[in-house]
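hiii, so i know i said id send this last week but things got crazy w the move. better late than never?? heres the sequnce for the chain we talked about at the cafe, plus the structure i predicted for it. fair warning i was half asleep when i ran it
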Amino acid sequence: MYTLDYQPITDDQVALGPPNTILCSKGFWIYTKTGGVLEVYPGVNTIIKKGDLIARIKNIFGNVVDEYYAPCSGIVIGRSSNPVAMSGDRIIHLGVIKKKSESLPKEAKENY
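okay and structure toks below
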């Protein structure tokens, strides 16, 4: 019995390849300076530019206590999902996108 005869394959059912890979030359976490209610704006895999607003901390009354901006352009590798932040909590893990002319090291060392 040929079971694949019952499963017609059309062009729209063909699986696409993996999305484009973005290589990072380095990455680092951005941390809070104060505590409060944390709002992180960019999602994971979002490309951000230097100076973009990435997060705000508000007090319990809704007043903005602190704002955080991207120190450089890059891609968001990870982000905080907990809205309650203390001083020193992680906001986002920012990856600096590798330039085409830049070569990657043979052995990458972790930076945290």
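btw The chain has a mean pLDDT of 86. thought thatd interest u
miss u guys!!
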